[in-house]
Design a protein that fits this description.
The complex is a heterotetramer, with two copies of chain A (255 residues) and two copies of chain B (304 residues).
Chain A lengths: L1 E14 L3 E7 L1 H6 L5 E5 L10 E4 L2 E3 L2 E7 L3 H7 L6 E8 L11 E7 L3 H9 L6 E6 L17 E6 L6 E2 L2 H11 L6 E6 L2 H13 L3 E5 L15 E4 L2 E4 L6 E3 L6
Parallel strand pairs in A: 8-9, 8-12, 9-10, 10-11, 12-13
Antiparallel strand pairs in A: 1-2, 1-7, 2-6, 3-4, 3-7, 5-6, 13-16, 14-15
Helix pairs in contact in A: 4-5
Chain B lengths: L7 E3 L2 E3 L3 E3 L21 E7 L12 E4 L2 E4 L7 H16 L4 E5 L4 H11 L6 E5 L15 H14 L4 E4 L7 H10 L4 E4 L3 E4 L1 E2 L4 E2 L5 E5 L4 H14 L4 E3 L6 H10 L3 E4 L1 H5 L3 H15 L15
Helix pairs in contact in B: 2-3, 3-4, 4-5, 5-6, 6-8
Classes of the chains: A alpha/beta (255), B alpha/beta (304).
Bound molecules: flavin-adenine dinucleotide (FAD) (2 copies), flavin mononucleotide (2 copies) and FE2/S2 (inorganic) cluster (2 copies).
């Protein structure tokens, strides 16, 4: 974990004023980063917004890391107007990251909206993966598909308005998929997205006795485990999303 | 260039520079070890511990406000036993920086038990967090002169370690509370703790924090905190650790000029762990530019 | 679309909408006449007047802080005579909006003299600004239960006009002060006034304000002000004008949900005079979206 | 006086990250504006900076007004990054403005730094003017000269570092000029710039029995005369810079 001033290589608008992909040059963080970890960054050095904002590491290319983010408020709005060559104050990599599957498991990735960000990075470290499920409100919220090409796997898509793939929720896709996976191998699901989706994914996983890792979001203050601000209720008491997570075994969480 | 002297004394505790990491904002030291070199700061105050471990308040525990942080961590902590066994030894062994241990009890007896556990430790001092609900229904010890006097007096009898009292800003006259603490034998005053506050979610019609009430910290409160340091400086001659919204060198100077012998960094650490280094460098530049050289000369130098 | 009802009652004063222009922040009405249509707001509280004109404090009188305004205007005002002759008649004649007159005295006698001057006027009410230094050296009437009770009681005997008391936030327990004001006969409570604070200029080593101490207002204080409204709502059943940092529709809703019957706009007027209109429109949208339709139903609806 | 959302026509950098000229389309303010008045604008609609910032009206062209500003802090820094076609929330015109000279006077304009802004506008309304004196720290701080061309007058320049014109202060120029104006007509001086310069100008004017109008700066909160925040000490008690000023007869001020 370190605090660096990272140069912006690119801050690309993927969908006007909505989704952006930011590339930062930061060799030490790029070297240490593991899938599921995040960076905590200051969108500017003013007092507004006051706090840092956390973003999953979306991918790593040599000395650079990328994040994929959605403009949801003032902080991400300001971030989206930062320009190439400017410096950003970044702390990272933070959090535990995904526990990589052993080879004898079938891996399913389930992404909702910008939640796809961390699963892209995870996919770079996977040997194989029978299915990637991506859901969003409409086709414009379906991101990062190209990053999974390497896996040569089937990508299934759902949108709430039916504008792409199956009309409905990404958990509907999961619901359909699991019974079809007649396989002696254990199944492990990695899920990242809105809380509701994760909760539903956890339920489905439990029903099918699949192992399920979820990447949770909570309001992050320090990001390093010091302030206890990001507590999430688990069967072993409160845990810190930023340090004990953000990735948890779904069975541990009290949903 | 003439040598700049940042040394400052908090009674018997001498600090190599005036920067104190405030309680609750750097955990027990290990969490920030990669980002802040504890050897660089003047002193650290550990997260308030209680006799028994505390799980803390239900989430959400923090919301961001206009230039502020509203938190209801609820004193989540590992409890005295784990702290003494697993956390404190590392802190004392690895760093030369004075370690002040913050404690809170639900009864006077709990405070005294904690004191007896700490008395033989090689710590630089004990800070009494007196902002825990205790007196009557809604008030805390630190909001009442008599209760403050009583607790500090009782604790004073039981320890020879430097005794810090952390004052609550939620009072009519902080000078009076400071005076009670002084009379009862406090060695050092820390101020301010967080301001009692609440966040409301208009969409849901509910409080934003799981614990409903929270404490406000950060730049938003700085002007009020500064006023309180000023008030306390005028009523007592005890050393003061001033804090509340300090986020840069100028803020630190403002507290020192107003009367703080050392300054506490809380919320700003979350925003910029590198701030300790930045402020140390900034203070040096200021003292050299103003040809003052000794930080000590600045303390309470406010011209009115 | 169902009709939205923004009416709200402050005891005997009925407002067409909950927006009150707070004392000191829109002058005497004429300064903002091109920018704010006073007929659009629920009520106005005029700048606090004193018996004799007051020149106010030496400049600088205002500094900007993190999300706040620190001011030491020093109650600069034209005095009762000029106010009654030159300012009030225009306000009463030109607009249908209830006009509440804020007053402050240096002695109880001055308050009573002001009351007698106002008793025959066609005003909607009198607001007692009890945050002027008076009790002892440093404290103000509004920081002391007994003093508050005494003043409100004395004033109550002398007027049948609706009586508002503006509470100071610089207290340990604002609920207690509110209760005293209620017992003494106050009809409505306004809260909060500004927080006692100070600004220091590290470069000069002096206070930034000519008056040294000032009052902090604006978004920075909102979480504390909201907590105080909550506390007062729990201790009295008097109507409340809630204020402190309101700068948009959500802020207004937060105060109403917490227990304010009307909301005061202060600092935010300086930033955006058009805010009155924006909040009225915003409240209508909210009530219609939530299918509540009557603002009244929202008052104090906080779920805890 | 009105509050409008004015479109940015141009936000031109005159000296990198230092001086800018902003043109705003706002027909009603352009119509009402008088020299010496100012506009009070929100550099953005965030809570930082919290307050509006006041700027003299630098010139008026049909439906547009211009301001000339120096980046001195966060507010002007943010303003300098606002873009063409964006909207700015503007209140104006505010303040009393310069009292125009009657024809039988000799007019001298004395400008320090960005203080030249309002004098340019004033010069558009003058029939004649024997001298314009402009001072600044260095030649890069000498602005707006072209705007005085219409007057066909002599422009004298001083810089503190001697990089342009006479080395010294603009008040030195005034000091030299006044005794040379052997004229039966009364002299009126209009001055705008830093407080120190205005004070010195007032002194010199008094010595030469010239009428002198100064445009003062104070921290402006409401800008409309309501809050009493911008008080300045005068021989007739405190006055409000925003409403009773910003232009005052220099003899009225307690310097
Ligand atoms: C571990 C982690 C990884 C994340 N990864 C991504 C990602 O890869 N891509 C992406 O688009 N988003 C990600 N998020 C969410 C992202 O942090 C928020 O969208 C962002 O902070 C919103 O900031 P804002 O100022 O634009 O919005 P605000 O107006 O501040 O808030 C909008 C919403 O974001 C939440 N939020 C604000 N600040 C924080 C914070 N410090 N921590 C957590 N939530 C916050 C608020 O509670 C609110 O619900 C992640 C969050 C966490 C905790
Ligand atoms: C009537 C009037 C006309 C002005 N005209 C011009 C002009 O034409 N061109 C120009 O470049 N500047 C002008 N100024 C000054 C300009 O308003 C400040 O430079 C600007 O507000 C600084 O804002 P900031 O946030 O960048 O700096 P800050 O960091 O906020 O402050 C830098 C300095 O500017 C002062 N300042 C900040 N806010 C205000 C305010 N609201 N009112 C007055 N002073 C303030 C501060 O006291 C400080 O000394 C004028 C000021 C007044 C009062
Ligand atoms: C998340 C958080 C946790 C805190 N925990 C404690 C604590 O355990 N004990 C204590 O005395 N103060 C605690 N504080 C208060 C700080 O030590 C400090 O007094 C206060 O935040 C004001 O300083 P600041 O504005 O620099 O943060 C906490 C503050 C924050 C923000
Ligand atoms: C410049 C200024 C002048 C004020 N003058 C008065 C006053 O004369 N009387 C009074 O009761 N309150 C006065 N107030 C306090 C406001 O009415 C209000 O209570 C306070 O500012 C908090 O609200 P806000 O955060 O919306 O500004 C003044 C506030 C400001 C900023
Ligand atoms: S954000 Fe501080 S512990 Fe997680
Ligand atoms: S700034 Fe409010 S009166 Fe001038």
């Amino acid at each position: 974990m370190l605090q660096v001033k990272a140069r912006i290589i690119e801050n690309k608008e993927l969908l006007p004023e909505t989704y952006y992909r930011l590339s930062l040059k930061t060799p030490p963080i790029a070297r240490l980063a593991k899938p599921g970890q995040f960076v905590h960054l200051r969108v500017n050095e003013k007092i507004f917004p006051l706090l840092r904002r956390p973003f999953s590491i979306h991918s790593v290319h040599k000395e650079n890391i990328q994040i994929l983010y959605k403009v949801t408020g003032a902080g991400t709005g300001i971030l989206s107007r930062r320009k190439k060559d400017e410096l950003l104050d970044v702390i990272g990599p933070l959090g535990n990251g995904y526990r990589l599957p052993d080879k004898r498991t079938k891996v399913i990735l389930v992404a909702g909206g910008a939640g796809v960000a961390s699963l892209c990075f995870l996919s770079q470290r996977l040997a194989s993966c029978p299915a990637v499920l991506i859901g969003g409100r409409s086709k414009r919220d379906i991101l990062g598909r190209d990053k999974f090409k390497r896996l040569k796997t089937k990508i299934k898509i759902s949108t709430e308005d039916g504008s792409l793939g199956k009309k409905g929720l990404v958990t509907d896709l999961l619901q359909e998929l699991l019974p079809t996976l007649h396989s002696p191998l254990p199944t492990v699901i990695y899920a990242c997205g809105p809380m509701k989706m994760l909760k539903e994914t956890a339920k489905i996983a439990e029903r099918h006795r699949a192992l399920c890792y979820v990447s949770l979001e909570e309001f992050i203050v320090c990001g390093v485990g010091a302030c206890q601000g990001c507590a999430v209720r688990t069967k072993n008491g409160y845990k810190r999303v930023c340090k004990d997570g953000p990735v948890f075994d779904s069975k541990e969480i009290i949903w | 260039m003439k040598k700049i002297n940042l040394k400052t004394n908090l009674g018997r505790i001498s600090l190599k520079n005036p920067i104190v990491l405030a309680s609750g904002c750097f955990g027990y030291g290990d969490e920030y070890k990669d980002l802040i070199s504890l050897d660089d700061v003047g002193a650290v105050v550990t997260k308030t511990i209680t006799l028994k471990p505390k799980a803390g308040n239900p989430p959400p525990r923090v919301v961001e406000t206009a230039s502020g942080i509203l938190n209801s961590i609820g004193l989540a902590n590992v409890g005295a036993e784990v702290f003494l066994k697993e956390k404190l030894p590392g802190l004392l062994k690895k760093f030369s920086t004075p370690v002040i241990v913050s404690i809170a009890g639900e009864t006077r007896d709990e405070y005294l038990k904690l004191i007896s556990l700490l008395n033989r430790k090689k710590i630089a001092g004990i800070e009494l967090n007196i902002s825990c609900p205790n007196v009557g229904k809604d008030l805390t010890i630190g909001q009442d002169e008599v209760e403050t006097f009583g607790l500090v007096k009782a604790v004073r009898k039981k320890t020879n370690l430097p005794l810090l009292v952390k004052l609550s800003p939620n009072v009519t006259d902080i000078g009076k509370i400071a005076k009670s603490a002084e009379k009862a034998g406090a060695d050092i005053l820390s101020l301010v703790n967080t301001f009692s506050a609440i966040g409301i979610d208009a969409e849901t019609g509910r409080a934003k924090l799981g614990g409903v009430l929270g404490g406000l910290s950060g730049p938003a409160i700085k002007p009020i905190a500064l006023r309180m340091v000023w008030q306390v400086r005028k009523t007592t001659s005890l050393p003061i650790i001033g804090m509340g919204g300090i986020a840069n060198t100028s803020d630190a100077l403002e507290f020192i000029i107003t009367g703080a012998n050392a300054i506490g960094l809380g919320s700003a650490i979350f925003i910029n762990p590198d701030l300790c280094r930045e402020i140390i460098a900034g203070l040096k530049r200021y003292l050299s530019r103003k040809r003052i050289y000794n930080l000590d000369k600045l303390v309470g130098s406010l011209i009115v």
